[in-house]
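Reading a protein record of the kind used here takes only a little practice. Think of the row as the fold of the chain written in a discrete alphabet. A record is reproduced here so that you can trace the correspondence yourselves:
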Amino acid sequence: MNGRTILNLVLGALIVLVLAGIGIGIYNAGVSQGIAQAATLPEGTTVVAPVAYGYGYGHPGFFGFGFLWILFPIFFFLLLFGLARAAFGGGRRWGGPGWGPGGYGRDGWHEERERRMAEYHQRLHDEQAGRSGNPNRPNPPNPPNAS
């Protein structure tokens, strides 16, 4: 592990702890508010619980999505793995870390491209030198003047 990975782990754990602390604080504030409201009721008052309706005709599935509820956990896991990849420096790559002709690394293809371009450039110069020095080959025609 390099220093960047360790830093990402520490920052990720710190963010999780901060969010958990905020959530616990909000939960405790709600419990305290409920206890304070319950203490203000006069003696002999009963709190009526709301009627719980069953799973019936009016609710055809997961909040009205029917059998499509399965898409929500899939999306959640894709989002979770994507965030983990971003936290560990995964970046935006397709096909792995440079599995091209240039070898490994993010810019492995760059060296191979430069080598091929230099080879092609040299071949063009060799062809041009061969055309002007060979008497059996006619030179290409000159473009007409645009005067």
Remarks:
- The chain has a mean pLDDT of 77.
- The two ends are 68 Å apart (CA to CA).
- The chain has three helices and no strands.
- Helices lie at 3-39, 71-87, 108-133.
